[in-house]
Amino acid sequence: xxxxxxxxxxxxxxxxxxxxxxxxxxxxxxxxxxxxxxxxxxxxxxxxxxxxxxxxxxxxxxxxxxxxxxxxxxxxxxxxxxxxxxxxxxxxxxxxxxxxxxxxxxxxxxxxxxxxxxxxxxxxxxxxxxxxxxxxxxxx
Length: 140
Known about the structure:
By secondary structure, this protein is mainly beta. It has 1 helix and 9 strands; from the N terminus they run H-E-E-E-E-E-E-E-E-E.
């Protein structure tokens, strides 16, 4: 009985809300069309998967206006969260980083298996004071 009473009360409440006020219609604001200004978008990175080396290669480009770039790679390997964090201060107009999906110790590298939920975030700090951030979803 208590459940039926609750359902009836909810029905009455929503019915009252629906029909208690008249439907209001407002006029849309007049749209003023202007010529679109040309904004040039500049990219500072690109990413490629290298399956033979079990890694991703980040290419940093257009670095003449970049003060610092940082990157965070996070992924899950066989149920364990893994990741790589790094940064660079540009010394030229382009640089690259090779991020390995695995671990290395004393010159011996072991690749991680069953990789899922891989994501890379690259943040660039510009000399002008601004910053950009780009997120990549990686399907391995």
